[in-house]
Design brief:
The protein is an alpha/beta fold. It has four helices and eight strands.
């Protein structure tokens, strides 16, 4: 059995209520709700794979719209004892997945301005979201493979917050098509 994970209900509107071979988990938005919900799910059930679907902002102007597989995640909203952004006093600087893919920067606030984009790009990320780092870290603690598919919902610039609601519906369609392509359901 696989676990289909999303943070927000809008990211799943194109999905049927039941997918063969998948349980479903809606975590809530942000690192703490995501970590909590996934920890509870993995502590009570056994899964062959975690498959995360959701939206993300593209901070690389060359990144095309559509669905991208995530290959690694870092945190853009932490600072280590050394004062370096992206470092954490306890957690690894970056968590990697088995798949090749895009590096995503996770943080607990919605990125929608050009200055923030420049700062986060300097960390080596091409996309931003609010859950990926936490979900990968938890999955690794339970030794469960995880795959993250993120659809570009916005360009993380001025006005991105207002665009998200409409874009999330389109992204859900793209994500549903990706699950059909990768898993045949």
């Amino acid at each position: 059995m696989k676990l289909l994970v999303a943070a927000h209900p809008s990211e799943l509107v194109a999905f049927e209520p039941e997918l063969p071979g998948f349980d479903r988990l809606l975590t809530g938005v942000g690192k703490v709700p995501a970590a909590y919900a996934l920890t509870r799910a993995l502590a009570t059930n056994s899964y062959d794979e975690i498959v995360v679907v959701g939206t993300a902002g593209a901070i690389d102007p060359d990144l095309e719209s559509g669905v991208h597989e995530i290959g690694g995640a870092l945190q853009h909203d932490v600072k280590g004892l050394d004062g370096v952004i992206g470092h954490h006093v306890w957690l690894p600087e970056r968590v990697d997945l088995a798949a090749d893919g895009i590096v995503i920067a996770t943080g607990d606030h919605f990125i929608d301005d050009a200055d923030a984009v420049v700062a986060i790009r300097s960390l080596g990320a091409r996309m931003v979201d609010m859950e990926s780092y936490a979900l990968v870290w938890v999955a690794q603690q339970f030794d469960v493979p995880i795959r993250i598919l993120r659809a570009v919902s916005d360009r993380a610039q001025d006005g991105a917050t207002e665009e998200w609601d409409d874009a999330a519906l389109v992204c859900s369609e793209w994500l549903r098509a990706s699950i059909r392509e990768f898993y045949g359901v």
